[in-house]
Predict the 3D structure of the following.
Amino acid sequence: MPSTAIIDELDCETLFPAPSLPPSALSPQRLPGTSVQSLAALQYVLKDNHKRWHIFLNDLKQHNHVAHRALALYALGGSGSLIREFYEQDGGEQLPPIEPPEAITSTNFLDHLGDERYYKAYVTFFGQEIDEKRIPVVLGQYIFSDRFQYREGASNQPEMLSRFMLSLFHALIHVSYGVEFGLKGMVVEGLALTAVQNLPGNEFYPEHFFTDGAQGTTEVVTHLVSSLTVGGSVPKITGSEADVHVFDIIARIVRDDILRVDNGPVPRIVFKQAVVEHAPRIRAYAAQWTIDVTRKGEIERKMEELIWLSSAVYAVGGFDEVNGFTADFYLMHVVTSSLSLPSLITSLRPRSQALLLRAYLVAVLTWWVARGCPVLNVKPFMISTSTRLAVPVSEGNDSSVCPDEHPNPFLSIIQTSILHPDNHLVKIQRSFAHFSTVYGNRPAGYHKGTELEDAELLDGSLFVRAALLTANYMGSKEEPKFWSRRGFFS
């Protein structure tokens, strides 16, 4: 009979094979630099992390980011020694796994949601479910179906989509890495994380969201707006507004003085305040955003809108003409999570795709409110920020063909980010690099006609501007700086 150690190793081989190619052209692509050594280092990190560590770092349920950094480094061509070195650094923060009191089955699945002691049991359960049903079916069933949101008479409601989206999107990000790299182990870990995640409040996505949320009609908005009984009206979509952009939504919220929270020393408590006090109102705004899944290319168009919004909330919202740029830790996660969307939608059916995008918008807007509703002053941002490195890699000489040209700024940005000690920097710069690749050629005027003031000035340079601002704010390997957690409260 084979030993337990051999069985565990065989299981890890199945969970963490060599990464596959990206699932679509819109998914992040890999940079040169992959080698036998970097693959070996990546697989070592993923397997060792899976066997040795819990998904949470502490009793506050802060997350184990080991796999996220390792995969980002691998995708950007980081060396094997670098992947291992940062794993040793990050591993010092981790907690050992907890032996679950019992196995998770379809019978007791609901009984232990939110209980971190059952993390490993949920990993085993979801691994078996994926083997039997495959990833798209499991995601559709456990994350997006009505059945795993609310059960009549249940004391502990599943609300699996809420668990998947909240707590800074970490479960969504974890699962999307699995889909992007073809790693079953990342998917089962991410689903198990979803199951043991806490909820900041009840009914973040209420029951009607799962019928209304996949639509984008006037009737949906009327239903949600009519449910608001306190605090004034929300602008209604009319039948003539055939296509409502996310920039229309953010512009409407900017004018709503009700959507404000009190600053506090603990951001997760401020976020909970935003959920408890404002979730229905935020959902009513998000319901005005139109998604017509019968239109060819609609999911890709609406996903692109979310990517622009996420980057603008972080970069434009973080910029001030007087005080410069502030790289907010929480809005940074809005950007890195938006990189998850192109891969994740490839494993979902149209109804679940629409639910994912609208649920994501609700979560992004809630975080924006929780960070103090930073204003999106597009014109000063586009005038005052640069698309060039502060110090070019080579100044050239008199014989240069283009003496005023700087080299591709992303080459330096990526090189700096993969060496930086902060484990989030490489992920946000990978996001901006990919968005620049796909959307960087969008001209000024691309967003003309939306309600956001000066949106027509935004062009594809948003992403390199955001990347440069972030690089300058965070410093270098030798002189690193770190994210702001102050928020944008007046």
